[in-house]
Amino acid sequence: MELDEIIKKSKHTKQIADKILKSSNLTNILSKFGDPEIIGSYKYDLMYGPDLDIIVETDKPRLSSVNALTELIQTESFSRYEYGDFVKFSRINRPHGYIIVLKIEVDDVKWEIEIWFLNKNERPQNDLETLMINLTENQRKEILKLKHEREESDINKNNLSGMEIYKKVLTK
Predict the structure, then answer these.
(1) The 98-106 sheet, strands edge to edge
(2) Higher pLDDT, 16 or 170
(3) What average pLDDT score do residues 127-146 get?
(4) What's this model's pTM, rounded to 2 decimal places?
(5) Which whole number is the average pLDDT over 63-74?
């Protein structure tokens, strides 16, 4: 696939993400339970795959996540709802918090939305945040190209994450 087509796919993916966010009223719902922020590829206009990452900072992450899950289920906007406790059952490379994973299919494409509920002021610091703010257009194109190559080679995102791709390009 040519770079122009990769960029076009990225823009289309973000448009679908916008459509999902709007039709589900997701950020408004989450704002009842804390301070939501859409992060990752959406935030930096680097979308390629059908997924969204959201952090909700709150004083009561467990209570907020359980209440948010209940309300999200009642909206009937998603086809599947999953919940994880990474406080009691912590794992390396996972935030110390609670996660809701929402699934929905749009135009025969399966989307996944990860929503992390974290204590305020305990958000993990990401060294790449500063570099991402100053992302050049050439770096953006290189990242999208690498994401495309990952998808074409059937490499799982768990084996090569977006963060690893960003780090590879931004720390050259």
Answers:
(1) 35-39, 51-58, 109-119, 98-106, 80-85
(2) 16
(3) 86
(4) 0.91
(5) 98
The CA distance from 141 to 147, in Å, is 10
Give the pLDDT band (50/70/90) at residue 92. confident
> Is the Cβ–Cβ distance between 62 and 87 less than 8 Å?
yes
Cα–Cα distances in Å, from 46 out to 10, 40, 89, 95, 169?
A: 7, 8, 31, 22, 13
- The mean pLDDT of 87-91, rounded to a whole number, is 90
Enumerate residues 6+ apart whose C-beta is below 8 A from 62: 85, 87, 98, 117
Classify 111 as helix, strand or coil: strand
Show the domains of the chain with their CATH numbers: 3-124 (3.30.460.10)
